[in-house]
Amino acid sequence: YFDVVDYKNKNDIFLTTIKNKSKQYLRSNQRNIFNEQKYFNFYKSIFFLDSPNISLSCLKLNDEIISSHIGFYKDDIFYYIFPSYNYKFNKFSPGKLLLEYLFKNLNEKKINIFDFTIGDERYKEDWSDIKSNLNTLASDNFSFRYILQLIQSLRRSLSKVLILRLIYLKLKIL
Questions:
Q1: SS in 3 state form for the chain?
Q2: Among 32, 34, 35, 85, which has the minimal tally of Cβ within 10 Å of its Cβ?
């Protein structure tokens, strides 16, 4: 397990995370948002903020990053946002191993809540005792959690936005 503290390591882990996530998108027949520079820059700008609330972690084997994660802290809550792993190590469950290290590390830091955020991936059921369905959000102010939800929503709806944009452009021409 390895927590990132300096810029060089942070950059290496970020780029490896994006590379592995891109390969995951390809394997699962999903659109790779990182093929477009604007999305790459968007995520990079968020994760390279100088903030104690941002967490970049990785698991290495012989100096090779085999799994990594980018997440956020807020008070005593940890938000599990962007995991990835090197598929050639799939049979060793590197994502699960990093998750176990994250749990141990967060327990030592007195983090009380581990939030897997949105998504119904099966592995989350193995680790969770509470499931929340987020249908609406009412808030007097923009909270950190709300911003995280917006980021997650953006990731899931990028293809819908592009389709709507194409429809708009076609209607505008008519």
A1: CEECCCHHHHHHHHHHHHHHHHHHHHHCCCCCHHHCHHHHHHHHHHHCCCCCCEEEEEEEECCEEEEEEEEEEECCEEEEEEEEECHHHHHHCHHHHHHHHHHHHHHHCCCCEEECCCCCCHHHHHHCCCCCCCCCCCCCCCCHHHHHHHHHHHHHHHHHHHHHHHHHHHHHHC
A2: 35
